[in-house]
């Protein structure tokens, strides 16, 4: 299922935060969204999730404008893992993940074994199944992040938007999560700061700067020393890793 934006602009007062952005994420692709702090990545993700209305332009799922799609149907399709996702206090891990199933239920439909299997599967994928009964408040930052991702997976989405999902995670879980996202049979757009992870795990990259898309294409094409200087003001040397065959960025001090 594809997600696309056409000439999307979003402002706060007179300040343009997302400036005339057009993009397309094809079915099943994992696309990385790169850009410096404040370049508009989170704002764009919120527009794509339908949480904000653009001032001009449109967002579409499979070519259908999301403003024409019922809220509940949208909630079944798109999962959004926000950067600072909040969850109610005093819930067990399992109950947080169960929230992901809400869009699939009407007020009168009962919880069934498929729901249980989906929740267990999601918990297992992020390595939190054995912590199902632990209280949310007692989790570490990284464990909370993994539970948020399990909640998104329990939603069985066709599109998943993730805002810096590896924040708080140790390197083992960062790599595990990026691998999981890249292998999911869903359309994924993921805001990410680690350029080497973007190179290793994304099919394509979109680069933002001051609210605009300034580059897009495969990591092989996009990740160049000149682009990284222009956008991030960092000096790099880039070669092909002998270990995974993808571009590897070395930072030069
Ligand atoms: N509701 C708002 N009111 C005012 N300014 C906002 C609002 N939302 C976003 N901004 C501003 O828009 C710019 C883009 O913010 P956004 O969070 O989208 O950037 P980002 O690329 O996700 O940054 P980061 O990498 O730091 O997470 C920032 O300068 C931010 O201060």
Describe this structure in words.
The chain has 253 residues and is an alpha/beta fold. It has a single domain (3-251), classed as Rossmann fold (3-Layer(aba) Sandwich). The protein has nine helices and twelve strands. The strands form three sheets. The chain has a six-stranded mixed β-sheet with strand order 6-7-8-3-9-10, with helices on both faces. β1 (3-12) and β2 (15-25) form a beta hairpin. The longest helix is centred in the middle third of the chain and has 14 residues, at 141-154. The mean pLDDT is 93. Bound molecules: adenosine-5'-triphosphate (ATP). Residues 12, 17, 35, 37-43 line the site of adenosine-5'-triphosphate.
Feature tags:
alpha/beta; four-stranded antiparallel beta sheet; six-stranded mixed beta sheet; Rossmann fold; binds adenosine-5'-triphosphate; 253 residues
List the helices and strands and how they pair.
Layout: E1 3-12, E2 15-25, E3 30-34, H1 41-48, E4 56-61, E5 64-65, H2 71-77, E6 78-81, H3 93-98, H4 113-125, H5 141-154, E7 159-163, H6 171-183, E8 187-191, H7 195-201, E9 204-209, E10 212-217, H8 219-222, H9 225-232, E11 236-240, E12 247-251
Bound molecules: adenosine-5'-triphosphate (ATP).
């Amino acid at each position: 299922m594809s997600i696309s934006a056409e000439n999307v602009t979003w402002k706060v007062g007179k300040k343009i935060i997302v400036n005339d952005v057009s993009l397309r994420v094809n079915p099943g692709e994992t696309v990385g969204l790169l850009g410096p702090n404040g370049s508009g990545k989170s704002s764009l993700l919120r527009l794509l999730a339908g949480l904000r209305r653009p001032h001009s332009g449109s967002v579409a799922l499979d070519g259908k404008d999301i403003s024409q799609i019922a809220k509940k149907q949208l909630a079944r399709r798109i999962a959004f893992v926000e950067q600072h996702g909040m969850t109610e206090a005093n819930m067990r891990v399992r109950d947080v993940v169960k929230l992901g199933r809400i869009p699939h239920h009407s007020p009168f439909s009962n919880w069934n074994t498929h729901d249980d299997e989906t929740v267990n599967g999601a918990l297992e994928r992020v390595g939190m199944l054995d912590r199902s009964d632990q209280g949310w408040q007692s989790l570490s930052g990284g464990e909370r992040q993994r539970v948020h991702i399990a909640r998104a997976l329990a939603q069985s989405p066709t599109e998943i938007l993730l805002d810096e999902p590896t924040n708080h995670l140790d390197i083992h879980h960062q790599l595990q999560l990026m691998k999981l996202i890249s292998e999911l049979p869903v359309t994924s757009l993921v805001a990410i700061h680690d350029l080497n992870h973007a190179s290793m795990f994304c099919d394509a990259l979109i680069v933002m700067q001051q609210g605009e898309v300034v580059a897009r294409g495969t990591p092989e094409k996009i990740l160049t020393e000149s682009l990284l200087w222009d956008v991030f003001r960092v000096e790099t040397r880039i070669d092909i890793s002998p270990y995974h065959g993808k571009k590897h960025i070395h930072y030069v001090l």
